[in-house]
Amino acid sequence: MKKMLGVIQLDHENDLLKELTYFRCVAATPFASRYRLIDFVLSNMVTAQVHEIALFARKKYRSLMDHLGTGQPWDLNRKNGGFFILPPDWNDPTDRSLGDLQHFHNNRDFFMRSQADYVLISGSTHLCTIDYQAVFEQHLQTNADVTVIYYPNYKTNGQNQNKLKLQFNKKGAVQALINDQQNPHLFMNMYIISKKVLLELVDYCISNHKSDLLLDGVFAHLDRLAIHSYAYDGYHAVIDSVESYYKYSMELLQDINYQKLFLQANPIFSKIKDEPPTQYKKGAKVSHSLIANGCVVEGTVKNSILFSGVHVQKGAIVENSIIMQRCTIQQSSQLSHVILDKNIQVTPYQRRKGTIETPFLIAKSQVI
């Protein structure tokens, strides 16, 4: 049986979430009251029987390492294969590699030790419930060197428009990777590649002083590589700005979106936190909200998302907001269209208000 190994590559994920990524990388950003963004790609890989996964991290990965641990929630704490966090600890004085090629070059032994002949490479910002096994089967059937995954019906909606799209020729073959706002074929930063071809491209790029495996390696060789595409048309959200983070978070309060992401055949796993059930005290009013375990609600919560350990005191009002772990909103304070990062204390009688287009965002561990 032919196998894939997985690589979660974080090098190209810029810190576009402002205060949310002051102290963490994008992949570690909390989402949907109990998850982190990396949980989605990691869970999709494991569901597709990819049990040998490497994480290429370069900066601000302490929070991510704490969340992932040994990989036990994803059944990756195993003797054969398992989960490997590979930070940039390189000491080869002869190394001439640049950009993301440094990860592949300096961790070449990871690939050489693996018995898998194919590599699934993905980032963490595209949230979906993709069946990687179906992509792999198509990759094998078409005898492709590379299979790139795209979302065929993307609309910009005024969000971050610096996104790569696939361009096809008249025969439907991949022709280029471009940045065209009118093109709906959004490249999802996911692809399957032969391990042999991958290592050859890494060597080529390094010897020619290139710095980007995808652009300088894969798409610079469209003339000689068999590059095929796979169209994914299920639930999709790309988190690459504060606005998109808020938009897709709040959309999960609609039953249909929540079901598409979390109630499918592919379960989403995450770090287990042993928290008691949420307490709803006398006088609490809660409606149309997503609330994790360990919260205490004495005030009013409307159309909001609360992570574990949040305390909404008596008389406080939280609406259209995202409140992360261990925040306290003290009595008679009012929050509307607000994102609070972890460990924030909102003192009594405070008023904070943003908008749907521009939510009010506060970095972690502050007193306001």
TrEMBL record:
Protein name, as recorded: Glucose-1-phosphate adenylyltransferase subunit GlgD
One of the protein's GO biological processes: glycogen biosynthetic process
Gene Ontology MF term list: glucose-1-phosphate adenylyltransferase activity
PANTHER family in UniProt: GLUCOSE-1-PHOSPHATE ADENYLYLTRANSFERASE-RELATED, GLYCOGEN BIOSYNTHESIS PROTEIN GLGD
Cross-referenced InterPro entries: ADP-Glc_PPase, GlgDAde_trans, GlmU/GlgC-like_hexapep, NTP_transferase_dom, Nucleotide-diphossugar_trans, Trimer_LpxA-like_sf
Protein family according to the UniProt entry: Belongs to the bacterial/plant glucose-1-phosphate adenylyltransferase family.
Domain of life of the organism encoding this protein: Bacteria
Stretches assigned to the Glucose-1-phosphate adenylyltransferase/Bifunctional protein GlmU-like C-terminal hexapeptide domain: 282-348
All residue ranges annotated as the Nucleotidyl transferase domain in the record: 19-153
Keywords, alphabetical: Glycogen biosynthesis, Nucleotidyltransferase, Transferase
Pfam families for this protein: Hexapep_GlmU, NTP_transferase
